[in-house]
Specification:
Strand content: 35-45%
Number of strands: 24
Strand order of the largest sheet: 9-11-3-14-15-16
Distance between the termini: 54 Å
Largest sheet: 6 strands, mixed
Structural class: mainly beta
Oligomer: single chain
Length: about 375
């Protein structure tokens, strides 16, 4: 069992004049396991079987320039949850709750590269996690010649083999500090299970940490499962002003907290058939909504879609209830879609767009 270092005084909430540092949460579909991977896991007596077709998700916080990630936290008012409807896979040899001290040699072994864990950016000694599309130095490879599945298309490039990109870049990992946990983190350390929950715990990067690429994204965790994956996060970011911080919560914001629905996520397998999650690309897609506020219908305008026919949207109310889900009919890189909400009552709604593996949410006001 990995020893967890406990510290105090992590949540120091110093409000700034305007919350603007969180640009969103990005979920990357990193890898899908095949028979060779599953066989290797079984041969090494994994606690949770690595089922063929298990998906490895990576979760990044996307920050504005000069912002730093400080902590993930749960409080009595704001639960911090990570869940699978089945169980998370843990590599039986070199798996860990926090992977930043794993040597590159061990990370190359067996299924370590798709182990489930939490982090503050660092995923091996001297290595920082980045989107595969931002990885410019190839792959560290695999000692057993597995993790070689190459689905292409929405999955992007392979993580091992010729022209691979494994999402590891040179950097100096910061060791996470954790407070308030007993056994909650065990499901990421050789204990079968799929439910992590705390309302009194913190995972922090003391002093803050920024990304190693221009997008300024920090990897928060990696999770491999053959079930539906979901999370509910609360995040503290450091501002460019010394000593300043901003607090973002998934629900029930009070005071200087900012509520951001991108902090809640479900893999949507039950919402849109066969849509999955799209691989991130170097051209970042974007969308706008007009008019907003709206009386009867609004238009979604998408740019830089790269003609991805699997783009889709989900409209939810403030309670998180799904109202409508639809794939977008793509006929060009830039296109529009009209959505009729004339029958909905007045109030606040949230539109979540899945565009080329980027999940973005915008508030819609119905008059």
């Amino acid at each position: 069992m990995k020893k967890i270092t406990l510290i105090v005084g992590l949540l120091i909430f110093i409000p700034t004049a305007k919350s603007q540092g969180l640009e969103g949460i990005v979920v990357e579909k990193y890898y899908v396991s095949d028979l060779a991977d599953s066989t290797n896991a079984a041969d090494n007596f994994s606690v949770t079987p690595l089922t063929v077709g298990s998906v490895t998700y990576r979760v990044f916080v996307d920050m504005a320039t000069d912002y730093r990630f400080l902590s993930l936290f749960g409080t009595p008012e704001h639960d911090f949850k990570i869940n699978s409807t089945t169980a998370f896979y843990n590599d039986p040899n070199n798996g860990s709750i926090f992977p930043q001290n794993n040597s590159v040699t061990n990370t190359r072994k067996n299924t370590t590269l798709i182990d489930s864990w939490l982090c503050t950016g660092g995923i091996a000694s001297g290595k920082i996690g980045v989107l595969k599309s931002e990885d410019t130095d190839g792959s560290i490879g695999n000692a057993q010649n597995i993790l070689a599945n190459n689905l292409g298309g929405d999955m992007g490039v392979a993580i091992n083999g010729t022209d691979a990109q494994d999402g590891l870049m040179p950097g100096t990992p910061l060791t996470p500090n954790s407070l308030g946990f007993t056994t909650e983190l065990d499901i990421f350390d050789q204990t079968a299970g799929g439910s992590f929950l705390t309302n009194n715990g913190v995972i922090a990067a003391l002093g803050g940490v920024s990304g190693v690429t221009a997008s300024n994204m920090i990897l928060l965790g990696q999770f491999t499962t053959n079930g539906e994956f979901s999370f509910k996060l609360n995040i503290q970011l450091g501002t460019p002003t010394p000593g300043g911080s901003e607090i973002y919560v998934a629900t029930n914001a009070t005071g200087t907290e900012t509520q951001d629905s991108s902090l809640m996520y479900t893999s949507f397998t039950s919402l849109v058939d066969d849509s999955g999650i799209k691989e991130n690309t170097k051209k970042t897609p974007s969308f706008s909504v007009y008019p907003n506020p709206v009386n009867e219908d609004f238009t979604i305008f998408v740019s830089n879609s790269q003609g991805n026919s699997s783009d889709y949207y989900v409209l939810q109310d403030v309670a998180g209830t799904k109202i409508t889900t639809s794939k977008l009919e793509v006929n060009s890189i830039n296109y529009s879609k009209k959505v009729d909400i004339s029958t909905l009552p007045s109030g606040i709604y949230f539109l979540t767009m899945s565009l080329n593996n980027t999940l973005s949410t915008q508030k819609i006001i119905k008059q």
